[in-house]
Design goal:
Elements: H1 4-17, H2 21-47, E1 55-63, H3 68-85, H4 89-96, E2 98-101, E3 112-118, H5 129-133, H6 139-151, E4 158-163
Antiparallel strand pairs: 1-3, 1-4, 2-3
Helix pairs in contact: 1-2
Length: about 170
């Protein structure tokens, strides 16, 4: 019995059958709610992941050791604020399908590794910083913000275009 849902149903049936008649209805409703909630969560997670053959994008940034806090503040107050405040459906979709991963520990060379994982890549989406910033800021302000962003980097980002396999 490899499927955990079947195991859940069997255990639930055993537990419910051992209840007093007045408790059975309540337990049945609780079991249905738990199963429905689990299925809904599984579906949402599935929708956020690339399916076989779809493109993904992995961007790895190495942030200078002393810039960690400034970088995180910039990302929160400037970059993600820009994405979250956009009224464009495509930009909202990009935000919803992008994961931002932070470091578990500092690297041996004192840098910090952060990653963006676009899973899946939104077709027609805009992932270039200059264009993203110009959604909200003037060209001059955008250039200044990009300069600030680049000042946090220890090296150029590593960009990997990947295709989801069947596994």
């Amino acid at each position: 019995m490899k499927n955990p849902v079947y195991l859940f149903l069997i255990l639930g049936a055993i537990l419910i059958s051992s209840c007093q008649p007045e408790e059975k209805n309540k337990k049945m409703e609780e079991a249905k709610a738990a199963l429905t909630n689990n299925t809904a969560n599984e579906k949402r997670k599935e929708d956020m992941r690339a399916k076989e053959g779809e493109k993904t994008l992995l961007i790895i940034n190495y942030v200078r050791g002393e810039s960690k806090l400034e970088y995180e503040k910039f990302m929160d107050e400037v970059f993600f604020d820009l994405l979250l405040s956009s009224e464009k459906p495509l930009m909202k979709e990009q935000y919803n399908k992008t994961r931002w991963l932070s470091p578990a520990r500092q690297n041996k060379d004192n840098t910090w590794t952060y990653a963006f994982f676009m899973d899946p890549l939104v077709e027609g989406g805009n992932y270039e910083f200059p264009l993203l910033f110009q959604e909200k800021y003037s060209k001059e302000e955008s250039e200044k913000l990009i300069g600030q962003y680049e000042s946090f980097m220890a090296s150029p980002p590593q960009v990997h275009s990947l295709i989801q396999t069947k596994h």
